[in-house]
Design a protein that fits this description.
single chain; alpha/beta; elongated; KCL_cotranspt; SLC12_C; transmembrane; potassium; membrane
Length: about 1100
C-alpha cells in the first residue's frame, strides 16, 4: 500500500509556537497511541549492555520514514545515533573524581567527569620510571654485583628485563585492541582470558602489589634505621644480632604502614601531589650516581676500607686502621687493638688471627680507571656467616674465631637463583601506565610507547649501573650489604657526588613514594575484582565511601601488607612478590599468544610489532624465572591461582567477556570432534554417552528428577550427557515455554549434580520430537550411543494409548539406530545422590549377550559413592541341555579376564508344561486388548477414518466441475464428500463436533474424489471386520499360541528373578525386543510388566549390538 507524504515548508512552520507543538503531539498521539509498558524483547536472552547503545528514542531522531524498523530499535539502533555516541564517547577518569557523585536539586544523581589530560610522558613514562627504579637499585644492586660478579649480574638483569620487555609487547597488543577503560591490567587480563583466569591472575596481581608495599616499607625502614638514624634501633643495640634488626624493622615498619594507610585513607589527591616530588628524588639520585662515576675517574673519593689479613673489618668502632701508633715518641694502642686484645701492651692477650696477620687499608672506591673491574668480573658466593674477604689478599689462618663479631659477614647463604628472586622486583612496575588508562588522552598510543620506552630506559640504567659499580667500587665493599666496612654508609652512596646524603635521602623518599603508590593501587585492583562479582566472598570489598575510596579493600590490603612487614627482611619478601608478578606476566603473554593464534575476528590491535612467538617466549621465560627464583614459592603461587580458578569455576562465573580461552575451547572442541569422526571408538574407549529423554509436568518442571540422579551416578561427569524433552505444539507459539522448560531442566541438573547439555524441542507431537532427537542429537563424533528413559508408569490406566505407543516406537528406533536403551522402572524409588546404600547387591540377569553392556553398567555405578558398598552378582539361565557347572566355571573365568569382582550363579529353568495361570493370563490380556480396540473404534471411528484418508490420499485430491461424470478405472472410489465443510473437518484435530458421514450427503457442485489401491481397501475391510466383532465373539476367542509361549517365559523368569533378587538394591535385566508386527504392541507391554512384577528397582537394558567390554588391555 503506497504511503502519502505531506511536505511542509520550513519557513512556514511555527516552530516557536508551543501551542502548535502541542497540537502536533496530540495528533501524533491519536494516530499512533503508545503504551506505558516497558520495552518489549522478543526473547528472554540477556544482551550485553554497552555504553554506546542507547534505548531512548524519539520521533525527532528516527522519524516516520524508518517505521519499518521501529520494532527493532531497542536492539539495533540507527547508524546515525550509534555514530553520534561513538564520537562523543569518553573514558571515565580513574582518579577520585570518577566516584564522586553530585546530586542535583531534582534528586537525579549525576556523575562529574573531567576530560583526560595526560599524555605519554606524564601519564605512562614517568609513572613506569618511578615504579621500576626503586629500592632494589639503591639497596641491593651493588651487593648483587659484588656477589654474582659483573657477568652473572648482567645475565640476571638481561633475563629480567627481557621478560618485562616481552610482556610489555604483549600488553601493548592487548591494550591497543579496543578501548581500555579504567581498570588497567586487571581489565585486560580478565577480558582476554575469561573470568576464571582473570580472577586468579587478578588476585595474584593484587597480592603482588600488596607485598610490593611491604617491600618498599621494609626498604624505607632499612634506610632509616641503618643509614639515617641508627641510634633509633632498640633491639639491635640490645642483642647485637641480625634478629634484633628484624625486630626493629617490624616495629617501625608497622608504625610506617599505619601512617601510610592513614594518608591513603584521607585522600589519594595527597599521594598524587607528592608523586612528582618522589620521582624527582629518584631521578636526582640516579644523576648523583653517574656524576660520582665521572668524579671517580678524575679524583676518587677518599673512603678507606680496613682489612685484617684478607678479612674485612667493621670500621664503625675505630677511626684508624692501625694496631699501635706513636704519639710523642710513645707507642700506644689504638681502638682497633682494644677490640682484639685484653691487657696492656706487653702483657696483652690477643686474638690469634689478629697476631698473625697485618692490617691493610685500601680505597673503597678506587675509581673507573683503577682496573678493579677485572676482580669483580666473576662471582663470590658464600655461605651464611661466612666472612667477607679479599680473595687475592694473603693471610695466615687461625682456628680461633672468638672475635668474629668485628668482621663483615654474609647474613644469608648466597647463590645465583636467590639473587634472581631478589632482583626481579626492581623491574616490576611496567603496569603503572596501563593502570592509569582512564586518565590518558590517547591510551592506545600512549601505553605502548610510554611503557616500552620506560623499560628500555631503565634497562639501560640497570645495565650501565652493573658495569659501573663493578668498575668503580672495591669487591669487598660491594659484598658488604649494609656498608659496615665504610662506617655504616650506603654502599652506592660512597660513589655519589657531591654528597652521599643525596642518595640516602633520595632513596628514602623514593621508597616512601613507592609504598604509598602500592597502598593506593592495590585496593583499587581488589575493588575492581569484587565489583566484577566473580568471587562472591570478596563482594564486601567492592564498596567505597562517599569520595570513592575503597575503605574495606584498603583495610584488607593493610592487613596483608602487615604480614609481609612481620617477615622483617627485604630479602625474604622480594621473592614472594616476584612470584605473583611473574604469574601475572605469564598470563599476559598467554593472553596475547592465544588471541594471536586463534585469529579471532575481534583481535585487531593497533600496535603491530608483536608476534605469537614473542609472547610464547615471554611466557616461557616468566615460568622459568618463577622456578629459578624459588621453586617452592612458585608451587605455592600456582596452587593459590589454581584454587581461585576452581573456586570461580565451581561457583559458576556467569560472565561472558568474549575471552580468548573460550575461543581456544571452541577451536579445541572443533579439532577433537573432527578427529573423533575419523574412526569409530575402540571397545576399550567405549562408555555410555547418554541421551536422557525427560517428561515434563503441567508446570513444565521435570517429572522424574531421580532420572537425573541416576544419570549422574552412572556417568560421574565423564563422557557425554544430553538431557532433552519435547513440547507439543508450534515453536512460534511455545517459544517462551521452551525456554522456561530449559531453565527448569538446567536447575534440576544443577540440583542433581548432572553435568551435560540440555535442550528442549517443540514438535507437533512427542513421537516425532523424540524421533528427531534420537536421530540428530549430538555433534560429529560426540553423539550419544545410549538412550535412557523412564518406564511409562500407569500405562494401563491412561486414557490415551499414546504413552505406551511412543515408548515402543522409541524402543524400535533405538534398535534401528544401533543405540543401547536403558529403561528405568520405578524410577522415583531410585536413590538420590545424598543417599548411601549401606549394603546390598546389584543383580545382573544375563539372559542373552548383546555386547556386554549389562556387566559394564554395574561397574560404572559402583564407582559412585551411592552404590560403592553394593556387591555385584551375575545370574545366567541354563536350559535343560546345558551343563550348568561348566557354565559357571566359564562365566567365572570370563569375569576374571574382565577384571570384574562379582559373584556368579547359574539358574536352571526346566521346560515344564504351560500352567493354567499362564494360559488364563494370556487370554485376559488378548481380550482386554480387543475390547480396548473396539471401544476406541466405536468412539472415534469416523474421525480416524477421515484423517487416514486425508494423510494417505492428499496428493490425489482434485476438484470436479458440476455435471461431469467420474472417470471409470481399475481403482475403487469412496463416496463423495462435501468439500468446504468436510475438508475442514479432516484437518482440524481439536474440533469438538465431528459430523457422521453417510450416503445422504447433499450433493454440491464441488466434490472430492479419493482413490484407494486394492491393498489399502483389503486392509480397511479387515479393520472394519475386526471392529464389528461382538462381545460374545470376544469372550469365545482363544489365545494366540505365540503369545502364550511368551507369557510363559515372562511368568517363569519372573518367578526365578523375584525368588533370587527381590531384596537386591537394583536388578539389571535383558530387555526383549518389540514385536515386528505393530498389532502386538500392547501385548509386548504386558509381557514386560509381567517380567518385572514384584521388583522394586529395575533397569531394563537393550544393547546396541556391538561389543562394549573386552578382556584385552
Amino acid at each position: 500500500m503506497p504511503t502519502n507524504f505531506t511536505v511542509v515548508p520550513v519557513e512556514d512552520t511555527p516552530i516557536s509556537n508551543p501551542d502548535y507543538d502541542g497540537e502536533i503531539m496530540k495528533e501524533e498521539d491519536k494516530e499512533e497511541p503508545h503504551t506505558a509498558a516497558g520495552h518489549y524483547s522478543g526473547d528472554d536472552t540477556p544482551r550485553e549492555t554497552s555504553s554506546l547503545i542507547s534505548t531512548d528514542h524519539d520521533d525527532s531522531i528516527y522519524g516516520k520514514n524508518m517505521a519499518l524498523y521501529e520494532d527493532e530499535m531497542d536492539s539495533t539502533p540507527m547508524v546515525s545515533s550509534l555514530l553520534n555516541k561513538l564520537a562523543n564517547y569518553t573514558n571515565i577518569t580513574q582518579g577520585v573524581v570518577e566516584h564522586e557523585e553530585a546530586e542535583s536539586e531534582d534528586g537525579i544523581q549525576r556523575i562529574t567527569v573531567n576530560g583526560p589530560q595526560m599524555g605519554t610522558f606524564i601519564g605512562v613514562f614517568m609513572p613506569c620510571m618511578q615504579n621500576i627504579l626503586g629500592v632494589i637499585l639503591f639497596l641491593r644492586l651493588t651487593w648483587i654485583v659484588g656477589t654474582a660478579g659483573i657477568m652473572e649480574a648482567l645475565a640476571i638483569v638481561f633475563m629480567c628485563c627481557s621478560c618485562t620487555m616481552l610482556t610489555a609487547i604483549s600488553m601493548s597488543a592487548i591494550a591497543t585492541n579496543g578501548v581500555v577503560p579504567a581498570g588497567g591490567s586487571y581489565y585486560m587480563i580478565s577480558r582476554a582470558l575469561g573470568p576464571e583466569f582473570g580472577g586468579a591472575v587478578g588476585f595474584c596481581f593484587y597480592l603482588g602489589t600488596t607485598f610490593a608495599g611491604s617491600m618498599y616499607i621494609l626498604g624505607t625502614m632499612e634506610i632509616f634505621l641503618t643509614y639515617i638514624m641508627p641510634n633509633a634501633a632498640v633491639f639491635r643495640e640490645m642483642t647485637e644480632q641480625p634478629t634484633g634488626m628484624q625486630n626493629d624493622m617490624r616495629i617501625y615498619g608497622t608504625c610506617c604502614l599505619a601512617i601510610m594507610t592513614l594518608v591513603v585513607f584521607v585522600g589519594v589527591k595527597y599521594v598524587n601531589k607528592l608523586a612528582l616530588v618522589f620521582l624527582s628524588c629518584v631521578m636526582l639520585s640516579i644523576m648523583a650516581i653517574y656524576a660520582g662515576v665521572i668524579q671517580s675517574a678524575i679524583r676518587p673519593p677518599n673512603s678507606q676500607v680496613c682489612l685484617l689479613g684478607n678479612r674485612t673489618l667493621q670500621n664503625s668502632r675505630f677511626d684508624k686502621c692501625l694496631k699501635t701508633e706513636v704519639i710523642d715518641n710513645v707507642t700506644t694502642t689504638t681502638e682497633l687493638w682494644k677490640l682484639f686484645c685484653k691487657g696492656d701492651l706487653g702483657n696483652e692477650t690477643c686474638d690469634e688471627y689478629f697476631k698473625l696477620n697485618n692490617l691493610t687499608e685500601i680505597q673503597a672506591v678506587p675509581g673507573l680507571l683503577s682496573g678493579v673491574i677485572s676482580e669483580n668480573m666473576w662471582g663470590h658466593y658464600g655461605e651464611y656467616r661466612k666472612m667477607v674477604g679479599k680473595r687475592l689478599q694473603s693471610a695466615e689462618q687461625s682456628s680461633d674465631n672468638s672475635n668474629d663479631t668485628h668482621y663483615v659477614f654474609n647474613d644469608i647463604t648466597t647463590f645465583f637463583t636467590l639473587l634472581v628472586g631478589i632482583y626481579f622486583p626492581s623491574v616490576t612496575g611496567i603496569m603503572a601506565g596501563s593502570n592509569r588508562s582512564g586518565d590518558l588522552r590517547d591510551p592506545q598510543r600512549s601505553i605502548p610507547t610510554g611503557t616500552i620506552l620506560a623499560i628500555a630506559t631503565t634497562s639501560i640504567i640497570y645495565i650501565s649501573c652493573v658495569v659501573l659499580f663493578g668498575a668503580c667500587i672495591e669487591g669487598v665493599v660491594l659484598r658488604d650489604k649494609y656498608g659496615e666496612s665504610v662506617k655504616g654508609t650506603l654502599v652506592v652512596a660512597t660513589l655519589a657526588w657531591p654528597s652521599s646524603w643525596v642518595i640516602v635521602i633520595g632513596s628514602f623518599f623514593s621508597c616512601c613514594g613507592a609504598g604509598l603508590q602500592s597502598l593506593t593501587g592495590a585496593p583499587r585492583i581488589l575493588q575492581a575484582i569484587a565489583r566484577d562479582g566473580i568471587m562472591p566472598f570478596l563482594q564486601v570489598f567492592g564498596h567505597s565511601k562517599s569520595n570513592g575510596e575503597p575503605t574495606w579493600a584498603l583495610l584488607l590490603t593493610a592487613a596483608i601488607c602487615e604480614i609481609g612487614i612481620l617477615i622483617g627482611s627485604l630479602d625474604q619478601v622480594a621473592p614472594i612478590l616476584s612470584m605473583f608478578f611473574l604469574m601475572c606476566y605469564l598470563f599476559v603473554n598467554l593472553a596475547c599468544a592465544v588471541q594471536t593464534l586463534l585469529r579471532t575476528p575481534n583481535w585487531r590491535p593497533r600496535f603491530k610489532f608483536y608476534h605469537w612467538s614473542l609472547s610464547f617466549l615471554g611466557m616461557s621465560l616468566s615460568l622459568s624465572l618463577m622456578f629459578v627464583s624459588s621453586w617452592y614459592y612458585a608451587l605455592v603461587v600456582i596452587l593459590i591461582s589454581g584454587c581461585i580458578y576452581k573456586y570461580i569455576e565451581y561457583r559458576g562465573a556467569e560472565k561472558e567477556w568474549g575471552d580468548g580461552i573460550r575461543g581456544l575451547s571452541l577451536n579445541a572442541a572443533q579439532y577433537a570432534l573432527i578427529k573423533l569422526e575419523e574412526a569409530p571408538p575402540h571397545t576399550k574407549n567405549w562408555r555410555p554417552q547418554l541421551l536422557v529423554l525427560l517428561k515434563l509436568d503441567s508446570d513444565l518442571g521435570v517429572k522424574h528428577p531421580r532420572l537425573l540422579s541416576f544419570t549422574s551416578q552412572l556417568k560421574a561427569g565423564k563422557g557425554l550427557t544430553i538431557v532433552c524433552s519435547v513440547l507439543e505444539g508450534a515453536y512460534m507459539a511455545r517459544e517462551a515455554d521452551a525456554k522456561l522448560s530449559e531453565k527448569n531442566i538446567k536447575a534440576a541438573m544443577a540440583k542433581e549434580k548432572t553435568k551435560g547439555f540440555y535442550h528442549v524441542v517443540v514438535s507437533s507431537n512427542q513421537r516425532d520430537g523424540f524421533s528427531h532427537l534420537i536421530q540428530s542429537a549430538g555433534l560429529g563424533g560426540m553423539k550419544h550411543n545410549s538412550v535412557l528413559i523412564a518406564w511409562p508408569a500407569n500405562w494401563k490406566q491412561a486414557e490415551s494409548s499414546l504413552s505406551w505407543k511412543n515408548f515402543i516406537e522409541t524402543v524400535r528406533e533405538t534398535t534401528a539406530a544401533h543405540q543401547a536403551l536403558l529403561v528405568a522402572k520405578n524410577i522415583d524409588t531410585f536413590p538420590a545422590n545424598q543417599d548411601r546404600l549401606a549394603e546390598g547387591t546389584i543383580d545382573v540377569w544375563w539372559i542373552v549377550h548383546d555386547g556386554g553392556l549389562l556387566m559394564l553398567l554395574p561397574f560404572l555405578l559402583r564407582q559412585h559413592k551411592v552404590w560403592r558398598r553394593c556387591k555385584m552378582r551375575i545370574f545366567t539361565v541354563a536350559q535343560m541341555d546345558d551343563n550348568s557347572i561348566q557354565m559357571k566355571k566359564d562365566l567365572q573365568m570370563f569375569l576374571y579376564h574382565l577384571r570384574l569382582d562379582a559373584k556368579v550363579e547359574v539358574v536352571e529353568m526346566h521346560a515344564g508344561d504351560i500352567s493354567a495361570f499362564t494360559y488364563e493370563k494370556t487370554l485376559v490380556m488378548e481380550q482386554r486388548s480387543q475390547m480396548l480396540k473396539q471401544m476406541q473404534l466405536s468412539k472415534t471411528e469416523r474421525e480416524r477414518e477421515i484423517q487416514s484418508i486425508s494423510d494417505e490420499s492428499r496428493n490425489s485430491i482434485r476438484r470436479k466441475p458440476c455435471g461431469q461424470k467420474p472417470t471409470q478405472s481399475n481403482k475403487f472410489q469412496v463416496p463423495t464428500i462435501i468439500l468446504d465443510e468436510e475438508a475442514q473437518l479432516i484437518h482440524d484435530r481439536n474440533t469438538k463436533s465431528h459430523a457422521i458421514l453417510n450416503d445422504k450427503a447433499t450433493p454440491t457442485s464441488d466434490r472430492v474424489h479419493m482413490t484407494w489401491t486394492k491393498e489399502k481397501l483389503i486392509g480397511e475391510r479387515n479393520r472394519v471386520r475386526e471392529a464389528n466383532m461382538t462381545v460374545r465373539d470376544i469372550f469365545n476367542m482363544k489365545p494366540d499360541q505365540t503369545n502364550v509361549r511368551r507369557m510363559h517365559t515372562a511368568v517363569k523368569l519372573n518367578e526365578v528373578v523375584v525368588r533370587k533378587s527381590q531384596g537386591a538394591q537394583l536388578v539389571l535385566l535383558n530387555m526383549p525386543g518389540p514385536p515386528k508386527n505393530t498389532g502386538g504392541d500392547e501385548n509386548y507391554m504386558e509381557f514386560l510388566e509381567v517380567l518385572t512384577e514384584g521388583l522394586n528397582r529395575v533397569l531394563l537394558v537393550r544393547g546396541s549390538g556391538r561389543e562394549v567390554i573386552t578382556i584385552y588391555s
